[in-house]
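A.,

Following up on our hallway conversation. Structure tokens first:
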């Protein structure tokens, strides 16, 4: 099956999200714009996401970073309806009175990943709500080993996210590598890295890490992206 180009991916994502919305999958967390009780959901998405994506037909016009940011946002605000009724007045539509978030997110994620994995730049929507580039074949299951120090482990996790998350540019990736090098240097001088000395030396003296270019080292990993959405707030 040929890979999807951007316009094809955006079209499929938009239509899938619209179908979820028409079935009431976002009402638990975003509410319902009812003819009897109007609700400005577009203002809500603008406030929370930093982009007005409502109605979801707006997705058809967004660039890649905003489309993927919208998918992250909608994933965290998905819930599978378990009880609902139809409001016929003025075509108001479905009203959801009960919905399950975990099963809704799982189904939403499965459908999105069926599309994103076919995109020419293959992505995956993770269970934590972030969209990362799919790792090269053979490296998919590699995970960072924990150190037992929560601050160090969080810094490693943030650096990996900054490197692999959608929207990361070359500078974001370079900074992420430098942040990992700071962790490596710290471990080398404290508990040890378990790496051969030759490998430690190679990693710490590489051009990107040594800062031989014009970029400077930073104490905190960069998470600069094209949108304001961080995906860090998960509704219950």
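Then the amino acids I'd put at each of the 236 positions:
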């Amino acid at each position: 099956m040929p890979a999807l180009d951007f316009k094809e991916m955006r079209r499929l994502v938009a239509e899938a999200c619209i179908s979820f919305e028409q079935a009431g999958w976002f009402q638990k967390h975003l509410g319902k714009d009812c003819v009897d009780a109007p609700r400005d959901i577009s203002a809500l998405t603008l406030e929370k996401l930093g982009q007005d994506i409502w109605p979801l037909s707006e997705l058809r016009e967004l660039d890649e970073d905003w489309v993927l940011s919208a998918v992250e946002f909608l994933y965290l605000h998905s819930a599978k309806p378990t009880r609902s009724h139809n409001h016929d007045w003025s075509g108001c539509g479905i009203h959801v009175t009960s919905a399950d978030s975990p099963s809704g997110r799982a189904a939403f994620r499965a459908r999105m990943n069926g599309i994103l994995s076919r995109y020419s730049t293959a992505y995956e929507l993770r269970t934590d709500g972030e969209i990362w580039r799919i790792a090269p074949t053979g490296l998919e299951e590699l995970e960072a080993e924990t150190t037992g120090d929560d601050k160090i482990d969080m810094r490693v996790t943030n650096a990996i996210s900054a490197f692999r998350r959608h929207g990361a540019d070359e500078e974001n990736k370079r900074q992420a590598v430098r942040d990992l090098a700071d962790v490596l240097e710290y471990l080398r001088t404290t508990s040890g890295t378990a790496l051969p000395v030759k490998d430690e030396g190679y990693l710490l003296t590489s051009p990107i890490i040594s800062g031989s270019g014009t970029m400077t080292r930073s104490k905190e990993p960069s998470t600069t992206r094209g949108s304001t959405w961080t995906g860090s707030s998960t509704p219950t």
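Confidence is low (pLDDT under 50) at residues 212-228. Curious whether your intuition agrees with the design.

B.
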